Amino acid sequence: MGTTKHSGRIKLPGKPDPKLWVSKVPFGLGRIKPHHIRDTLKVMAENRDNLPYAYRILTQGVCDGCALGVSGLYDQTLEGPHLCTTRLNLLRLNTMPAIKPEILHADIDELQQMNSTQLRKLGRLPYPLIRRTGERRFSRLSWDEALNLIAGKIRSIHPKQLAFYLTARGITNESYYVAAKTARFLGTNNIDNASRICHSPSKTGLKRSVGIGASSCSYKDWIGTDVLVFWGSVAANNQPVSTKYMYAAKRKGTKIIVINPYREPAMDGYWVPSIPESALFGTRIADDFYQVNIGGDIAFMHGVMKHWFAMEAEQPGSAVDHAFVEAHVNGYETLKAHVELQEWEQLEKSSGMSRARNAEFAEMLAHAKSGVFVWSMGLTQHRFGTDNISQVANLALLRGFLGREYCGLMPIRGHSGVQGSGEMGADPFSLPGGEFKGEDIPRIEREWGFELPRWQGDIIGVSLENALLPEEHERKLKLFYTSGGNFLETMPEPDFVRSCLESVDIRVHQDIVLNTSTLADAREAVIVLPAMTRYEQPGGGTSTSTERMVYFSPEIEGPRMPEARAEWQIYCDLAARVFPEQRQIIAFPDAQAIRDEIARTAPNYDGIQHLREKGDVFQWGGAWLCEDGLCPTPDGRGTLIPVELPDLRKPEGHFYATTRRGKQFNSMIYSDTDPFTDADRYDVIVSETDTRALGIADGDAIVVYNRHGIFHGRAKTGDVAPGNLELFWPEGNVLFQKGVYEPMAGIPEYNSAVVLEKAEAFHALKDNRYVEKRIDELETDLIGG
């Protein structure tokens, strides 16, 4: 942990810099780009029935969108107001009225014809609901009836047949904490959260390399660092407020590099709405793009280090910070020997980058005195995600980019609450303030006053699969309790996931709106519980940002769903009904009592008990973790990890497919058209090289397929590395294989080898022998891949 405190907000330059302008045409007229003014007016119109409440949420609450930690209209990095379309798009979830009864209780077939966007727009969930097997519509029931039914089922099954899941939908640390305590109180370790399918490898990779499970630096370190690298991260698209930090960094002379298969237009140039100069003329963000192959990052980083070691052989100290390595790092010689065994031919083929381009990047980093590496799902959502992260850590350790100003490792989060989920213990491998192992178990038992189950809980993907186990299996999932989330739109092979969800006896959806998974059948019953938003939670709530800032978001005066309850209160009530004789163990009189207990059980969060008013915030761990190179590892040193090159062979003419986001907040889609590319949700982005080779033109109907699924879409020529395809998420999830998890972090694999053909050719030749032959060819060539 560091001792240096965050130094506070800094001012943006007042004088414009035309060298950074994208265009001299005001507001980017005539360009394909987001229309922030139009979108803001649209949001105002949508919220016109509750504008005063919407205004209070924006000016008093902590953003329930991305994890940059905007409190009211301000953060801890820059002076001046911040507001982005992600937050504005989420606003209506907090202000809209209840779903009309005639719609809520309509025939299930009518509801199932709607997609999640349409269901979300119906309104808030007003009261508890149930739909028993065979019933055609939801029925209303009381809270007592709902919770007694759930409690009775929990008492009747083995604790291993019970699983909890919490999304990051505005969920507060208080709710994560009480859910974690409730799950263990009920005897189960099957509890997981949204980070499993986005950033779990970030934690495992950083833990084994430098002993931390969160960003080592602050956003402020972007502004003035020599080089800021976005690795598999399109922050301008997914965390739009961050573009203001990028603008500030560019004004300080920072070089911004993007490493991604697709040259994302949002990172090429962006019109930052809260900066007049940028809102008018746009800002050039990226200085360069390195378009690696999907899954080619490890090879690219091997090439960087191989070049560094060659530089060292000619001139010691020209690439490696030897003073830092000798004082703070283990494994130098082992890593060096491993990297030097790599062959350039294989590195170029795997990465898709020429040796010359690799050297260019390596030398730029070698000449930089400081650097911040930022990454997201482009690195984590692989079967080798932990190795990807440790490889990034290798680069930082060799250059000494750790534990000081303008340096660091940052897994940038997409949700405002998800960083706190594991730190509160809502994770099968975590407990508040520690791991589910060793001395942390008896420590938490002493704090909580009951014995924890000692068996290892399952990750969410395995829990869902366990619904298909034989009836008497002790781990057959029989009650699944999910707070938010929609696995039909987040997991690979959605049809398989539906079969899992529908094989559970009772499924509980604790949420604020309906989604498509809420409407799936269950063997006995689907129960829906209406939750409060973070702004309605009595006593307020806290959330932890990407940079470890813990913010207090107050309860905000406004309209309420009469029967909605705070999520943490629902967990307490349920636990008390399962074991009424021990109800005092799980009881909390108010949110403040939860924060008091968090401060005792999670040492890093000592200080959360003092957050009571709007604007209250503290940063756990200080401005920089691993300050001065001292890592929270047994010997205080970081470790260089030799990682193997992943096998990425594919037959000639086949492609690798991955996903991207567009006009959405995770799986919540706000438009059928991506404002940065003008692409439809079913457009497949293909390189010009590949469209020419295949004789495909923009707009042509195409089919992308493999053994796991078939995707019907249209070709969209884009600046993507040849041999790679970009599809939208979650629409493209049909192509990814179920049950493939990264071995250390448990994240599903979201990349796959595929065949791409014109639709007319696919359908003309669509007999089983042809398709099976093509798929068999694919699978045969990918053995061991």
Automatic annotation (TrEMBL):
Molybdopterin oxidoreductase domain sequence ranges: 124-576
Q: Which UniProt keywords apply?
A: Iron, Iron-sulfur, Metal-binding
Q: Is the keyword Nucleotide-binding in the record?
A: no
> Mind telling me which Gene3D superfamilies this protein's record contains?
2.40.40.20, 3.40.50.740, Dimethylsulfoxide Reductase, domain 2 (3.40.228.10)
Task: Tell me if Magnesium is a UniProt keyword of this record.
Answer: no
Family annotation (SUPFAM superfamilies): ADC-like, Formate dehydrogenase/DMSO reductase, domains 1-3
The record's InterPro entries line, in alphabetical order, gives:
Asp_de-COase-like_dom_sf (IPR009010), MoPterin_dinucl-bd_dom (IPR006657), Mopterin_OxRdtase (IPR006656), Mopterin_OxRdtse_a_bac (IPR010046), Prok_molybdopt-oxidoreductase (IPR050123)
Q: Which residues form the Molybdopterin dinucleotide-binding domain?
A: 657-752
Any one Pfam family here would be Molybdopterin
Source organism, top-level taxon: Bacteria
UniProt-listed PANTHER family = PROTEIN YDEP (PTHR43105:SF4), RESPIRATORY NITRATE REDUCTASE (PTHR43105)
* Protein's name according to its UniProt entry: FdhF/YdeP family oxidoreductase
Organism equals Paenibacillus mendelii
